[in-house]
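[step 3/7] fold_predict: job queued, chain A
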Amino acid sequence: MPDAVTREQVYHAEATALSGMLQMPLKQTIDPQAAATLHPKGGYLSQKTGDFRLEAVVAFRSAHTQVSGLLGTKEGHGHATLTTAVVEGLNILEILTCDRVVSQIATEHPLEGHTPEITFLGTRFENLRIAGHPVHVKLDINRVGPKPPNDIHYLHEPGFLGRVSKYIESFRDHKDLPQPARERYTGTSKVDGDQHSIEFSLVDEIKGEFPGTVFGNVIHVPHFGTIYLATVKITCDDDKKTYPKTTIELKMLDVQMGCIGEGGILVGTGKTNGGSGP
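[step 4/7] structure written:
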């Protein structure tokens, strides 16, 4: 293992308030709003924007993001990375609205070893509504769980995999689950070259008397489309690599529209890995 003192930390953090691609009712690319990308050497960066409106299709009142990376000041603490995206006053086609969407990922990479500790503390929806009806979303921000022992990566940790599989099994076999969601959530890790990844959600429960059908963290709304809430993707390099990285992606709202509007909109996204480099 490279020496804990001489090895160099390479930071990675990026956050975006809103982005997307529309086909109907107008054809338009939505450039990333309030996008922030951290310098590999760390530091701090924030971005903010005021009122945004794309015709009567999508709007928000304000948005801001922040990314940071630094070495902890307390003895024994590692390199901390923070990724935050906040959107206030969201409105998509007068159907999906939310007073405040907060996406937040915090990680701490150890001084020795490579697997980080991960937390989503602060992540939440405030007053999410569909067609004016409240959508009560209970999140489990501890679904990832504690850092795996012995520096193994998350996709080799039985406790983490068990929690993810149990959650996905609770809705995956529903006969009406949209096929794209069935393909997205398998409950098992996918292998792509020397990387392993799994996608799941922080949603624990969704309640409310709103139009649409709930499948775990997926809401299918007739004549509008499919909404994926608080999705997380963890990608781990093969632990045989000299400098393996763990990448965490969080998308608070992934809206795939059809019928009234067509296209995709992402709200409150963050991505971070970080790790040591030669």
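[step 5/7] annotate
The radius of gyration is 19 Å.
Helices lie at 158-172, 179-184.
exit 0
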